[in-house]
Structure prediction request, 213 residues.
Amino acid sequence: MDPIDRSDFVTACRTTLDLAGSPEVTEAWHLQSSCAGMTVGGLAHHVLSQARHVDTILSARPGAEPPIPLLEHYARAAWVEAGPDDEANTGIRDEGDRAAAVGPAVVLAEIVPVIDRLPDLLQAQRDPDTAHIPWQGWSLTTDDFLVTRAMELVVHSDDLAASVGLPTPSFPDSVVEHVVHLLSGVALRRHGHTAVIRALSRPQRAPASVSAF
Prediction:
């Protein structure tokens, strides 16, 4: 596939910001979201934080170590196969809820300048063009790193919209294609090709789930 379109990635961030700033989300900020154990505000903060991760990591020095492949990133990450109540997932939920406790006005105001910086940041030349992910301890190419953040934006925007009864927002085709390609690859690794092929073509023989996560 061609690299993810970086201007489309910024559009995806702005789409998520529009959703998080909707009256439906801000009015339900302290209520339970569709992600069990996480408030609507905590979920909104988590999805908006993907833009902040890009800003922080691409403003830092590129990783010196060779980047690993995108699917290897998910093979190594402990949270991928962790249960809902495992620390890898409860920590994410708790962090989002704590950060969102300041309220929607503060959370939204803080993320706007971050997203505004992204176009220039994503056009800057990096040598090597890699992103070191400090909480994982390895690097990805910048384009692969953006795909990981795009997946978070798309998946959790659906969660956020479902939490408040809004339709899932539309994202640029190039972003969605990369997210679907990524999720399919992770699902193949976890469940095998037969399960995924049946899920996509033979529902009568399909397994109950081929979820990537």
Observations:
- Residues 43 and 160 are 7 Å apart (CA to CA).
